[in-house]
Every structure is written in structure tokens, then in C-alpha cells.
Amino acid sequence: MNTTAFKRKIIDIPEDTFRNLSIMAAAEGKNLKSFIENLLISQAKIISDEDIYQELLKTDLEGKTIATKEETKEFEKWLEL
Q1: Cα–Cα distance between 26 and 33 in angstroms, integer?
Q2: Contact 34, 25 (CB under 8 A)
Q3: What is the sign of the dihedral through the CA atoms of 28, 33, 38 and 40?
Q4: For residue 72, what are the CA distances in angstroms to 6, 22, 33, 60, 65?
């Protein structure tokens, strides 16, 4: 049983890209939607966990904010310093 969760996303692409992808899909005997989905899935598998982690370090600031003086004092008290 397939338990993979899916997300729906509407995208806008240039007409020439749409036409080219349609031709590529037809050449493989697939409909355009299926072709694009498979193309995106295969591309997403190429990225390494390290690359994903590096990008998250740049964009997800959780844990990267400097503690205020009050937070530092509370933490030091908690550590019994």
C-alpha cells in the first residue's frame, strides 16, 4: 500500500516550455502531468542530504538567534554557573 503524502502545487511556465515538455511527454507515451511529476521526482532524488542541510542552515534561522542578556542569565542559572 502506498502511504506517500502528496502536495498539490499550481505552477506557471512559459508557453514554449509547456510545448517542449508536452512533446517530450508524448515521445515517452505519457501525459504531461505524469511526465512533469516524474521529472521533478527524479530531480529531487539527486540532491544530497548535505546540500539540503546547507540550504536549511542559510534559510531556517531556528536556533541561530543570539540569546538576550536575560536569556543568558537564566541559562547560566539553570546550569548553576
Answers
A1: 11
A2: yes
A3: positive
A4: 42, 58, 53, 22, 12
In the chain, the amino acid numbered 22 is: S
Is the distance from CB of 21 to CB of 33 less than 8 angstroms? no
What amino acid is encoded at 45 in this protein?
A: K
| pTM of this structure | 0.58
As given in the structure block, the three cell numbers for residue 35 are 511526465
Neighbours of 18 (CB within 10 A): 13
Span 25-69, pLDDT tens digits: 999 999 999 999 999 999 989 988 888 888 888 877 676 677 889
CB 63 within 8 A of CB 56: no
Query: How far apart are the C-alpha atoms of 73 and 81, rounded to whole Å?
Result: 9
